[in-house]
Amino acid sequence: MSRARFRVIGVLSAVGLLGGAIVAAQPAAAGETKARHVLLICVDGLHESDLPWYVKTHDGSALAKLVHKGVDFTNASTPFPSDSFPGIVAQVTGGNPSSTGILYDDSWNSALLPFGTTSCAGVKPGTEVQYFEAADLNPDLLSAGDTGVNPAGLPGNVLTMTGNATSLLDSSQLPVDPVTCKPVYPHQYIKVNTVFEVARAAGLRTAWSDKHAAYEVLNGPSGKGVQDLFTPEINSKAPFGFADWTKNNDLTQQYDSYKVRSVVNEINGFDHSGTKKVGTPAIFGMNFQTVSTAQKLPRSQAIGPNGPYGPFMTGGYMADGVTPGPLLQRALDYINSNVGLFQSALKEQNLDRSTTIILSAKHGQSPMNPAQLVRIDDGAIIDALNAAWHTYAGTDKDLVAFAINDDGWLMWTTDRSEAATTWAKNFLLNHSGTGNNINGATVSYSSSGLKSIYSGAAAAAFMHMPAGDSRVPDLIGVAKLGTVFTGGKGKIAEHGGDNLPDRHVALVVSGGEIDRGDIVSKSVATTQIAPTILDLLGLNPNDLKAVNIEHTQVLPLND
User: Fold this and answer.
1) Residues 363 and 375 in one domain
2) Do 457 and 415 belong together in one domain?
3) 362-399 confidence digits (pLDDT tens)
C-alpha cells in the first residue's frame, strides 16, 4: 500500500486511535460448542453499502446467500485509525489501539532505539517502527526473501513459502529495545493476546494469510498464536514491470488468489501449501486486497499472458457515491466467486454445518463520491511547517520527527511540549494551498485539508492514551471528507482517517448453526469479532486481555 511517509532525523510517522463497544463479554455456557471452525474473511475497503448493493443486483450470488442465511450488522465500525494493521489486530484481540498499542503499520516510538542499532549505550531514543514490507528479508520478492523458495519459480511456487512468518523479517530493520539492545518483533510490540493464542492454549489449530511478514503480530506476545501464517509480500515487484501487485487490479486479484488457494488447502485439511495433512484449523482465514485497489486506482487494464491489454476500466464509485464503478464491480464479482469457492469447499468436506463464516473489513476507503476528492501534497505542507518552525524557534532542527498521512494526519514532533505542538496545530489550521480534484484540475484547500486537529495532551486523550506515551502521536488531524494526502494523481481514495467511509464497514456472521436472515442495525464495532470467535468455539471471551480492558461485548447474534 502506497502512502505518504516522511523521514526526518531518521524517523517516520503513524497514527492510532480507538472507538468500540464497552460492555462485558459473556462467555459460552460450559460445554457449549456452537462451531468447530471459524473462517474469518477480511475484504479491505468493503463498505457496509457495498454489500446490500451487490446482494440486490446479484440475487442468488454467494454473497447474497451468506447474507440471507446470516446475521448482517449494518452499523459496524472499524477502529480509528482505520489502517489495516490496527484493523485486523482489533478483530483478533477485541481491542482498540489504546489497549493493543498497535496504531499503524508504520509509526514512531519515542522510547525505542533506531533500527540497525547494535551498540545501545548513549544512543538517543526515538525511531520509526516499520512493520510493513521494509522489514522483509527481501521486500522485492513475493516470498519476502524465503530462501526455501526458488526466486526463478515465483510466483508459481509461492505456496511453498514457510508458515513461520517471523523468520522472514530482517532484524536489522526492526526497532531496538534500549534495555535488552535487541530488535523488537511485531509480536513483541503488541500489548495484548490474540484469539489465536487462546485457541492454541485450548489445543486447537490456527492459520492465517495476510500481505506482509510483519503480520506475525497476530501471533501475540507468546509468538506462537498462528501455527501456519502465509504472508506473500504484496508490495514486492510484480510482473510486467509494475512496481508492486497493487498497481494493477488484475495483478491484485492474482496475488489474492494465492491466499485463496491456501485457505482452500486448509479447508481440505492440509497446511497452506497443500502438501502436509494437518487437519482443518479451528480459526483461519485471509485478507483480500482486490476491492481496496479497485477503489484506489483511477483506472486499470486487464492483464493477459503478455501483459496489459484492452481498454482501461475506471476505478472507484459512480457520481452518486454509492454505485461501484466498472473496476470495482468486477472486484466485487471476484470476491463473490471466491466466497462461493470457500462455501463449496466446506460443503465438499462436510464442514459447512460446523463452520461459521465471518465477513468484514479492516477498513473502508474515502471518499466514495468522486466529486469530493481533493488530493493534497502533504510533503509540501510539512516542508513549510518545518521552515516556519526554524524561524519561529530560532533553530535549524526540524519540528517534525515523523508523520504518516493517508486521509488523516498523524505526526510526532522533536519537541513534544504543549507549546510546540500547539504552535504546529495553529500552523496547520492556518495553512492553505492548492491540490487537484478527480479530473486533475487545480483546486484550493484551507486548514491543510483538515477539519479538526488535536495536539499534545488533547491528541493523547483523543486516542484514549496517556499524555506523553511513547507511541501516541503529538498531533492528530481529522481530514475533511474527500481529502487524500498524496503527491501525485495516482489514487482516488485512501484510508486511515476518521470519516464515515473510512470506518463504516460490512460485517456478516453466517454459516454453521446460524442459518437465518437477520438484520441488526444497532451500533457495533469490529473489535467485537474477537470475543465472538471464541464464543462460537465454546471458549471464554474473557481470556482475551483487551476484552477485559475495554469490556468488549460479543456480537448480539440473537437480537
Assistant:
1) no
2) yes
3) 999 999 999 999 999 999 999 999 999 999 999 999 99
